[in-house]
Design a protein that fits this description.
The complex is a heterotrimer of chains A (324), B (625) and C (261). Chain A has 324 residues and is an alpha/beta fold. Chain A is built from 8 helices and 17 strands. A 9-stranded mixed sheet of chain A has the order 9-8-7-10-6-1-4-5-11. In chain A, strand 13, helix 4 and strand 14 form a beta-alpha-beta unit. In chain B, the strands form 3 sheets. A 5-stranded parallel sheet of chain B has the order 3-5-4-6-7. The chains are: A alpha/beta (324), B mainly alpha (625), C alpha/beta (261).
Chain lengths: 324, 625, 261
C-alpha cells in the first residue's frame, strides 16, 4: 500500500519532547519495514524552527495557527483530521503523554479510525503493523492489529531510546494551512508553575526517591539526611506529593519530571508505570522495597527486599563513615 | 450532752435553726442533682438493671471492699479507712439529723449510743490517720496525673473537720458538755454545707461512684450498644455521661494509658473531665455543637488502643472505651477517617482482609507445609482453626502459623481451616467504629462456619478470640485461644516436651487475651512445661502494657508522640530483666510491634521476640533423624 | 449544577490475572471487577461541586458484575440518581462502551441537558479509545482531560478547570459549559462511606434501568487482539541479601566503584 507513516511531534513551551524522538525512531523502523515514507507532523504557532530537529523523518508537515499555540486536544485533533482526510496516511504515532492525551482518540472518532493505545512497540509482520500494548497497569501484554486506515497508535513513553530518533539531517518542511477557529473553545488562562523549590532535581547527580513505603512525614527527615550524605537531593513518587510530604517540584514520573541522575535510589517505591516512566533511564538504579514482587525490581539494577526504614539509617551511617 | 434541738440560740430553738439549715442544704443539693438526673434522662437509654445479683456482688466487692483501690497498698488502705469512716459518720449524721429535726422521736442521738460512739471513735481516729497519709501523698509525693485542685484540699479539710469535731465532742463529753454541744453543731453545719456543695464539686463522685459500679458494664468488650455514633450530648447514653459525674480525677487511668504515656494527645482522665463538664453545662444540646472538634479533638479519639487498662484501673467503673467507640462511630459515619484507615476499611470491605490481598491467597502460607491442613468446609473436623489475617498474610508471621500447624499435627489434633472462606473477624473493625462492616464480616464468617462441622474453635489471634468468643453468639467454652488449647494438650498428654528449653524468658500478656478475657495462667503453665524460667516484668497480668497496635491503630497513620512509643517502652522493660534474652508473645501483632521496636531501640542484640508456639515446637518437635 | 458522572468497571488487578484458553483475552473464572479508579475520582469531584454550588449528581454506569455496589455507594455518598445500562453485550471494549454511553445520553433529554459530564480520564483497559474524547465528539461538546480541580464560575456558564501537564506544571483553563471533563484526580481523595450507609441506600433507593441501544455502532473501527500474555520480565535487578549493615557495605562499594562517593 502507499499510505505513509506519520509521527505527530509533541512540542510544548517551545521545546520538542523526548517522546517525539522515541516516536521518530520507532516510526523510521516501521516505515522502512513497510517501504513507505515517514513524515513528521508539527503543530503549533511560530515554532517552525523546531522542524529542523525532525530530520529522521523524510519530510515535515508544519501547521501554524494561533489556536495551536498552547496544547488543546480539540484544536490539534481538528487540524490533524483535516490533514488526514487530505493525505490519508496509513498510520499515525500519537504520543500518550499528559501533554498530548486525547488527541489520538478525538482524531480517530472524527475520521472513523481505529485506535491502539498503550503501545510500547510496533513491528511490521507480513506487511501489516503489529503493536505490543501494555494493559492493566503493566500486568498483561497484548499484540494488536488495527483493521482500517489510518491506524491511530497511542504511543507510550519508552518505546525506543530518544537518541535513536535524533538526526543531523535537515528535512524538507511543507507548511500546510488548516481551517480552525481563531481561538480554541477551551482557553488557557494561566500556567501554574510548581513552587520553584530550592532544588532542580533534573540537575542532580544523585536522587533519593521516596514512596509510600516511607510511611510517614517524620521519616522523610531521615531520608533527607541520607540524600545529603550521598551528595544528592530528595524526590518522590506521586503518592508522597499527593500527601503533601514533598512539593510538586520534587515529583518524578508522568505528571512530574523525568530524571536521569547517576544514581537513583528508590526507597519504598513499588514501581507503578507512571513513576518508572520518569526514571528508567538512570544508569544506576537501586531499589528497596518490602515486596519481592514489586515492579520496581524489573527496572532496577540492584534490589533489596527490606523495609525502607530499616535500610536508611544503616546506609546513611556507612556512607557518612566512608566520607570521613 | 444537752439536746441541741431544744437548746436556745438567739431566741430560736435549735431544731428551728437545724430545719432552716437542712432545708437550704437539701434544696441546693436537690436542685443540682435533679438537673443532673434530667440531663441523664434526656440522653440515650441503656438498660443496666439486668443481672441484679451479679451487680450487687460487684457493688460489695468494689464499693464496700474497695477492691481496685487496694491494688496500690498505701493509698488503698488509706482510702478504705477514709471510706468506712465516711460511711459510719454519714450514718451517724443522718441519725443525728432525724433526731435533731424531730426532737419528739423517742430515740437517742447517735453519739449517745455506746456502740455507735465506739465505732465512730475508732473509725474516726483511723480515718484521720488515713487522711494524713493521703495528704502527704497528695502534697508531697503526688503520683503523675493526680489533679491537684483546690476542691481536693477543701474536701480533705472538711472531712478532717467533721472527724475532728466529732472526736473532740466525744472527748469533751464527760467534762465540757457545752463543747460537745458546740462540736455537734460544727459537725452538722459542716456536713450540711458539704452536702450542699457536693454536687458542684469533684466529690460528686462520692454520690455517683457507687451507682457507677452498680450500673457498670457486665461484659467488658468495651462496645457500646448499637448506635450511629455520638458527638452531641444527648446521643451518648446516660451511662456514658454518668462516667463523667462519677470520675474523681484520680489519674489511675492516665497512668495506665499507653497513648498518654507516650505523649500522645489522649488522656482518658481529661476525656472523663470533658464529659463531666458536658453534664454540668446547662445547654440545650441540639443548639450547641457536638463535643468533637470542640472539647475533644479527632486525634484524641483515634489515639486510643482499646487496651482496657483505663477501665481495668478505674475504681468507679467508668466507661472510657465505649465513649471513644461512640465518637469513632460518629466520625466514621461522617467519613472522617485518615487515608491509611480508609484504605484498610475499603480493603476489608472488598477483600475481607486488612492487607488488600486477594482472598484466594489467604491460605498460601500452607503451601510450604509438608501436609495439607483439612478444609473444614469439606471435611468434618474436631477443631476449627481460625487463623486470622496477620498469621495468614504477614511474611513475618506465616512461620508461626506453619509452626502451629505442625504442632497441631504432631499432637494428633483433628483440625481444619476455612481456607478462603475465612474473613477478618471484625474485632478491630468494631473498635474503629465501623459497625456495619463488622456486621458484614461476622455474617460472612458465620456463613462459612455454617458450612463446616466442628466441635470447638481455636484461634491464634487474641483479637479474633475476643470477637469469636464474645461477639459472635458462640457458646461458652466453644472458642479457645491457642494457649488454652496447648495447655489442655499438655494436660492430657497429647503434647509433651521432648527437651527442656532451659532459657530465661519473660511473657507479655496480650490485652485481648489477658485483661479482656482473663487468660493469664494457661500460657504460664505451658512455659513451665517447656522448661522456660519465667521472669515476670513489673507490668504483668492485668497490668500488662499494651504494644500499641490495638484499636485499629496499626491501620492508622503514626501520630507524633513526644515520649517513647508503647512497644519501645515495653521492650526496654523486658530487656532490663537480668538474664532474660527472650520476650514471649502470644499475639501476632505483638510479634510485629516488638520486633520493630527492638530495631528502633537498638536492642536487637539483647532480646529476641518469639511466639509461644515457636517455643512449643522447639521443645516438642520430634528429633530430626 | 446538573452533573452527569459516567462510571465503568474494570478488571481488579489485585487478583492474579489469567489468560483465557484461546490466548486472546482474560480468563473470567476468578476475574473480579472493580470501579475504574479515576471514575471514582470523577464521582468525588461531582459531589464536591454539588456540595459547593448545589445541584444534582446523576451516575450512569454499564451493567457489570459488582456494579450495583458501586452505584449504591454513590447514592450513600450523595448522588441523587443512579442508572444502569442493561441488556447489552458484556465485555465491551472502551470504544464500544463509549458509544453506548453516547447513544443513551443522546436518547434521554434529562441526561442530555446536564451542565457537565465527568468521567475518569482513562482506565487500565482503554486499549482502543478513551471515553471522554469519544463522548465529546458524539455529543458535540468541548473536552478537557487530566483534570484535577473544577470550580464553577460566578456566571454559572463556565468552569475553571486545572489540568496537569508534566514537570509538575499545571494549567488553568476556562471551559464553557456544557462540556466533557476527563478527571485525573478529585480535589480531595474519594470519601469513605460506611457499610451501614451503603446498606441503607440499598433499601431506600432503586437503581434505574436503561435499555442498551439496540442498534450497535455500525462499522465500528475495529482492532484485533491477536494474542495476550503475561509479560516476560526481560530484566531483573540483582538482589542483595543480608543484614542491613552488610547490604549497606555492598552498596557503598558499588557507589565507590562508580565514582559516586
Amino acid at each position: 500500500m502507499s499510505g505513509k507513516i506519520w509521527v505527530v511531534a509533541e512540542q510544548w513551551r517551545g521545546k520538542l519532547s523526548e517522546i517525539t524522538f522515541e516516536s521518530l525512531a520507532l516510526g523510521r523502523e516501521v516505515a522502512d519495514g513497510l517501504g513507505v515514507p515517514l513524515q513528521a507532523v508539527l503543530l503549533g504557532h511560530n515554532v517552525k524552527n523546531l522542524a529542523g530537529a525532525l530530520g529522521l523523518a523524510d519530510s515535515v508537515i508544519y501547521i501554524d495557527h494561533p489556536a495551536l499555540a498552547e496544547p488543546d486536544a480539540g484544536s490539534q485533533a481538528d487540524a490533524l483530521a483535516q490533514l488526514v482526510r487530505q493525505h490519508k496516511p496509513h498510520a499515525l504515532l500519537v504520543p500518550l503523554t499528559n501533554v498530548s492525551l486525547g488527541i489520538g482518540t478525538l482524531l480517530a472518532e472524527q475520521v472513523g479510525a481505529p485506535v491502539v493505545n498503550f503501545c510500547k512497540d510496533l513491528r511490521v509482520v507480513d506487511g501489516r503493523l503489529e503493536a505490543d500494548c501494555v494493559l492493566y497497569g503493566g500486568k498483561i501484554e497484548a499484540t494488536v492489529t488495527a483493521k482500517g486506515d489510518p491506524a491511530v497508535i497511542g504511543l507510550s513513553p519508552g518505546s525506543r531510546p530518544p537518541d535513536k530518533g535524533r538526526s543531523e539531517k535537515k528535512p524538507p518542511v511543507e507548511e500546510v494551512a488548516v481551517t480552525l477557529p481563531d481561538q480554541p473553545v477551551i482557553k488557557l488562562k494561566a500556567y501554574l508553575e510548581p513552587d520553584a523549590g530550592d532544588v532542580d532535581i533534573t540537575q542532580q547527580d544523585v536522587l533519593v526517591a521516596v514512596g509510600r513505603g516511607i510511611q510517614s512525614k517524620e521519616n522523610l527527615a531521615l531520608a533527607e539526611e541520607l540524600a545529603g550524605a550521598l551528595g544528592g537531593a530528595l524526590c518522590g513518587s506521586r503518592p508522597v506529593i499527593d500527601q503533601g510530604w514533598l512539593p510538586l517540584s520534587r515529583q518524578v514520573g508522568k505528571s512530574g519530571v523525568s530524571v536521569k541522575p547517576r544514581l537513583y535510589l528508590a526507597l519504598g517505591i513499588s514501581g507503578a508505570p507512571e513513576h518508572i516512566e520518569g526514571m528508567k533511564d538512570a544508569p544506576l538504579i537501586v531499589a528497596v522495597n518490602s515486596d519481592p514482587q514489586a515492579p520496581i525490581f524489573n527496572v532496577a539494577h540492584y534490589g533489596i527486599v527490606a523495609d525502607a526504614m530499616d535500610m536508611i539509617p544503616t546506609l546513611k551511617e556507612t556512607v557518612q563513615a566512608l566520607r570521613g | 450532752m444537752h439536746d441541741p434541738a431544744t437548746a436556745e440560740y438567739l431566741g430560736l430553738p435549735g431544731y428551728a435553726i437545724l430545719w432552716l439549715c437542712t432545708l437550704i442544704s437539701f434544696f441546693l443539693f436537690g436542685r443540682r442533682v435533679f438537673r443532673y438526673v434530667q440531663t441523664l434522662r434526656a440522653a440515650r437509654n441503656e438498660p443496666r438493671w439486668d443481672h441484679i445479683p451479679k451487680r450487687l456482688k460487684l457493688f460489695i466487692i468494689d464499693v464496700l471492699g474497695q477492691r481496685k483501690l487496694l491494688r496500690e497498698k498505701v493509698i488503698g488502705i488509706a482510702h478504705f479507712l477514709i471510706f468506712w469512716a465516711f460511711v459510719f459518720f454519714a450514718a451517724s449524721f443522718f441519725w443525728n439529723l432525724v433526731k435533731g429535726l424531730f426532737p419528739v422521736l423517742p430515740i437517742p442521738y447517735a453519739d449517745d449510743v455506746g456502740v455507735m460512739a465506739g465505732v465512730l471513735l475508732v473509725s474516726g481516729i483511723l480515718g484521720l490517720a488515713a487522711l494524713v497519709v493521703a495528704a502527704i501523698r497528695r502534697y508531697l509525693f503526688p503520683p503523675e496525673g493526680l489533679e491537684k485542685s483546690g476542691d481536693a484540699t477543701l474536701i480533705l479539710s472538711l472531712i478532717a473537720m467533721v472527724l475532728i469535731s466529732s472526736l473532740i465532742g466525744q472527748w469533751a463529753k464527760p467534762n465540757a458538755p457545752s463543747v460537745t454541744l458546740a462540736m455537734w453543731w460544727v459537725h452538722m453545719i459542716v456536713v450540711l454545707g458539704f452536702l450542699a456543695y457536693l454536687p458542684y464539686s469533684k466529690h460528686l463522685h462520692l454520690l455517683a461512684s457507687p451507682f457507677g459500679v452498680l450500673f457498670g458494664t457486665l461484659q467488658s468488650g468495651g462496645i457500646p450498644p448499637p448506635s450511629e455514633g455520638a458527638s452531641f450530648r444527648d446521643d451518648f447514653t446516660w451511662r456514658q455521661l454518668f462516667s463523667g459525674l462519677a470520675c474523681a480525677e484520680c489519674g489511675r487511668c492516665e497512668r495506665a494509658c499507653p497513648a498518654f504515656q507516650s505523649g500522645e494527645p489522649l488522656s482518658p482522665k481529661v476525656l472523663m473531665h470533658h464529659f463531666k463538664e458536658l453534664v454540668r453545662t446547662p445547654v440545650l444540646v441540639r443548639d450547641g455543637d457536638g463535643v468533637i472538634g470542640n472539647q475533644i479533638q479527632q486525634e484524641e479519639i483515634w489515639a486510643c488502643r482499646t487496651c482496657l487498662a483505663c477501665m481495668d484501673q478505674c475504681p468507679v467503673s467508668n466507661e472510657h472505651i465505649p465513649i471513644v467507640v461512640e465518637m469513632r462511630r460518629y466520625l466514621v459515619s461522617q467519613g472522617s477517617v485518615d487515608t491509611h484507615l480508609q484504605t484498610t476499611l475499603v480493603n476489608l470491605t472488598r477483600y475481607s482482609n486488612s492487607f488488600g490481598a486477594s482472598p484466594r491467597a489467604r491460605a498460601k502460607w500452607t503451601q510450604s507445609l509438608d501436609f495439607k491442613p483439612k478444609d473444614a468446609r469439606k471435611e468434618a473436623v474436631e477443631y476449627l482453626w481460625f487463623v486470622g489475617d496477620y498469621a495468614s498474610f504477614d511474611p513475618r508471621l506465616q512461620p508461626v502459623a506453619q509452626a502451629t500447624a505442625r504442632v497441631f499435627r504432631d499432637a494428633g489434633l483433628d483440625f481444619g481451616i476455612l481456607y478462603d472462606g475465612e474473613n477478618n473477624s471484625g474485632s478491630d473493625v468494631r473498635r474503629v467504629g465501623e459497625e456495619g462492616l463488622f456486621e458484614m464480616l461476622r455474617e460472612k464468617n458465620k456463613q462459612s462456619f455454617g458450612k463446616a462441622t466442628y466441635q470447638r474453635m481455636v484461634t491464634t489471634d487474641p483479637h479474633s478470640f475476643q470477637a469469636l468468643k464474645n461477639e459472635y453468639g458462640n457458646k461458652n467454652g466453644h472458642v479457645l485461644h491457642y494457649t488454652q488449647l496447648v495447655d489442655e494438650l499438655f494436660e492430657n498428654g497429647k503434647l509433651s516436651a521432648r527437651r527442656s528449653l532451659g532459657v530465661s524468658a519473660t511473657y507479655h500478656d496480650p490485652c485481648y487475651l489477658g485483661r479482656y478475657n482473663g487468660v493469664y495462667d494457661a500460657p504460664r503453665r505451658v512455659l513451665k512445661r517447656l522448661g522456660v524460667n519465667l521472669v515476670e516484668m513489673p507490668r504483668n497480668r492485668a497490668d500488662s502494657y499494651c504494644c500499641g497496635a490495638g484499636g485499629g491503630r496499626i491501620w492508622m497513620e503514626d501520630i507524633p508522640c513526644s515520649k517513647e512509643r508503647p512497644a519501645e517502652s515495653r521492650v526496654r522493660e523486658a530487656a532490663s530483666l537480668p538474664g532474660v534474652g527472650t520476650l514471649v508473645v502470644s499475639c501476632p501483632k505483638d510479634l510485629v510491634m516488638f520486633q520493630d521496636a527492638l530495631k528502633t531501640t537498638g536492642l536487637e542484640e539483647k532480646l529476641v521476640v518469639k511466639d509461644l508456639m515457636e517455643l512449643v515446637e522447639q521443645a516438642c518437635q520430634p528429633n530430626k533423624e | 449544577m446538573n452533573i452527569l458522572v459516567l462510571m465503568r468497571m474494570v478488571p481488579d488487578v489485585v487478583e492474579e490475572l489469567e489468560i483465557a484458553p484461546d490466548g486472546k483475552g482474560l480468563d473470567t473464572e476468578y476475574l473480579r471487577m472493580i470501579v475504574n479508579e479515576s471514575d471514582d475520582h470523577a464521582l468525588e469531584q461531582a459531589l464536591i461541586l454539588k456540595e459547593r454550588r448545589g445541584g444534582k449528581v446523576t451516575v450512569l454506569a454499564l451493567d457489570a458484575p459488582d456494579v450495583d455496589d458501586v452505584l449504591f455507594s454513590a447514592v450513600a455518598k450523595g448522588a441523587d440518581r443512579v442508572l444502569k445500562i442493561e441488556g447489552g453485550d458484556g465485555g465491551l471494549t472502551t470504544r464500544a462502551a463509549a458509544g453506548v454511553f453516547a447513544k443513551v445520553i443522546d436518547s434521554q433529554s434529562d441526561l442530555k441537558s446536564v451542565d457537565v459530564v465527568l468521567t475518569g480520564v482513562q482506565a487500565i483497559d482503554d486499549l482502543d479509545a478513551l471515553v471522554a474524547p469519544i463522548l465529546s465528539r458524539r455529543l458535540g461538546l468541548p473536552y478537557l482531560g487530566i483534570v484535577t480541580k473544577v470550580t464553577l464560575d460566578e456566571s454559572g456558564k463556565a468552569v475553571t478547570a486545572v489540568r496537569e501537564f508534566s514537570a509538575g506544571v499545571r494549567g488553568e483553563f476556562e471551559v464553557p459549559l456544557p462540556a466533557v471533563l476527563g478527571i485525573q484526580a478529585a480535589e480531595k481523595p474519594p470519601r469513605y462511606v460506611p457499610v451501614a450507609k451503603v446498606r441503607a441506600a440499598m433499601k431506600s433507593h432503586k437503581i434505574e434501568s436503561v435499555g442498551a441501544p439496540t442498534t450497535a455502532d455500525a462499522g465500528l473501527p475495529l482492532i484485533e487482539v491477536m494474542r495476550m500474555r503475561k509479560p516476560e520480565v526481560s530484566s531483573h535487578a540483582q538482589m542483595l541479601d543480608g543484614a542491613p549493615e552488610e547490604i549497606s557495605k555492598k552498596l557503598a562499594g558499588i557507589f565507590t566503584e562508580r565514582g559516586l562517593l
